[in-house]
Design goal:
The two termini are 35 Å apart. This protein is 28% helix and 20% strand. The radius of gyration is 27 Å and the shape is elongated. The strands form 3 sheets. Strands 1-2-3-4-6-8-10-12-14-15-16-17-18-19-20 form a 15-stranded parallel β-sheet. A 3-stranded parallel β-sheet has the order 9-11-13. Strands 5-7 form a two-stranded parallel ribbon. The protein has 12 helices and 20 strands. β2, α6 and β3 form a beta-alpha-beta unit. The chain is of the alpha/beta class.
């Protein structure tokens, strides 16, 4: 069920429109109710008297503590739910804790650990398939690491100890948000214990106790990594990814020192927003880092669809002055987030993409003066067919140079789509200037939105 469907069902459940739900086959009723937050299932039970205790039998709990005023009431509700049909299987168990609740003296760390441990032990025995826990900095119990039924595991703010053995043979989806580990090994054992893992999402905490984060998986298809925005106690952080089946890679980080990738031959899409911890400017004297960045680029050079942040593009541009960089021969689609006065970095990268078909330029801000679009003789963009400039043009000289560069150097360009600034009085003049720019491609259309 998509989000629109869930919203429609929630509205009907709270507004008295449950007749349609009662007319559905019983199996479909359970499917609908399972995809609703538990509070809406309880509302549906109130609306229809025959469903008075229905919420107890839905094979899943989706509870947000903001629907309660007191901590102990939340705990009692979860305990009651788990006491019903304790021998039956659970599809999902999702609990969200909000620290603004008045915990009195019942919500201390020791009590939280005891409650969450009891609940997780219970749902593991009931062969839970989806587990989603955000309950503060609680320690996950050992039973979680040996759950054979679990398919999706999502944890927020939790503490994961270092166990001798981890076996999660069915987990395909793993989301870890601000999770702390005992050490590097605790993280590695968790990943290696997920034998069929396909999707990994990691939002790091600045004090997660992991210096070298190593992701090694033969089954992983998608990896989304967001580094901490605050400097932690560990320096020279390293992220290493070894995933031969990986198709989707998303990296967002400004503090990690080194990124190491290997076995990326299956990569289809990459979204790279990293600057390799260069706080101010690229340091050409750091030979170790130069070598690391060159190897990283070579590791992702087989990608077909690429999104690059300006900070990454700048590092690539500066490195190209000192290192022979790889060619992105398979790259068909490129999106760049392009700003300030470093837009001369883009043509330099385009020349490393001999088969590029589509270019999207987002968030563009062109300076009135300063940057030069080319640092050397112009080269043809021989494969480029489609270009879209997302940000409205204001008509300054640098903008027109960039558009001219695209039109004059793209022999098979079919369509250039751009926007004009709605508030500008110069739009008609800008449009006339655009019409004057010569086009190398006789079939090129310039579409102004």
């Amino acid at each position: 069920m998509d989000e629109e469907g869930r919203e429609r069902v929630r509205a009907n459940a709270s507004g008295g429109g449950a007749d349609w739900l009662r007319k559905l086959p019983e199996a479909l009723q359970w499917h609908v109710l399972l995809n609703l937050p538990t509070k809406d299932v309880v509302k549906a039970s109130v609306i229809y008297s025959k469903w008075r205790h229905l919420w107890r039998y839905v094979p899943g709990l989706d509870l947000d503590c903001r629907d309660f005023k007191e901590y102990n009431v939340v705990v009692k509700f979860i305990d009651r739910f788990l006491s019903f049909n304790s021998e039956s299987s659970l599809e999902k168990f999702k609990i969200r804790y909000d620290s603004v609740l008045d915990a009195d003296d019942d919500g201390d760390e020791q009590t939280d650990n005891a409650n969450v441990t009891r609940w997780i032990n219970a749902v593991v025995k009931r062969h839970v398939k989806q587990l989603d826990v955000a309950w503060g900095e609680v320690v996950m119990p050992p039973s979680l690491y040996m759950c054979e039924s679990l398919v999706s595991l999502k944890l927020s703010d939790a503490n994961l100890p270092n166990l001798e053995s981890v076996s999660l043979p069915s987990v395909k989806v793993l989301d870890l948000v601000l999770v702390k580990f005992a050490n590097d090994l605790a993280f590695e054992r968790l990943i290696s214990g997920c034998f069929v893992l396909e999707s990994l999402v990691l939002y790091r905490s600045p004090n997660d106790n992991v210096k070298v984060l190593h992701v090694s998986s033969k089954s992983l298809l998608s990896f989304v990594y967001n580094g901490s925005t605050k400097k932690g106690p560990l320096d020279d952080l390293v992220v290493s990814v070894d995933a031969p089946r990986l198709e989707d890679l998303q990296l967002s980080d400004h503090l990690t020192e080194s990124f190491v990738v290997s076995n990326m031959s299956s990569l289809v899409r990459a979204d790279i927003q990293i600057n390799f911890s260069f706080e101010k400017a690229f340091d050409p004297t750091d030979l170790r880092k130069r070598n690391m960045i060159r190897k990283f680029l070579a590791g992702i050079s087989c990608v077909k669809n690429l999104i690059l942040a300006q900070c990454t593009l700048e590092v690539i541009y500066e490195l190209s002055k000192y290192e022979l960089l790889p060619v992105f021969r398979k790259l068909a689609s490129l999106t760049v987030d392009f700003y300030e006065n470093r837009w001369e970095t883009l043509p330099d990268f385009l020349h490393r993409c001999p088969n590029l078909n589509s270019l999207i330029v987002e968030s563009t801000t062109f300076p009135e003066e300063g940057a030069s679009i080319l640092t050397g003789p112009p080269r043809l963009l021989s494969s480029l067919e489609y270009v879209k400039i997302e940000s409205p043009l204001e008509g300054n000289a640098m903008e027109m140079k960039f558009v001219s560069y695209l039109l004059e150097n793209s022999p098979i360009l079919k369509k250039l789509t751009l926007r004009l600034d709605n508030g500008s009085r110069k739009n008609s003049a800008i449009f006339r200037e655009l019409l004057k720019i010569p086009r190398r491609s006789s079939s090129c259309q310039v579409i102004v939105l």
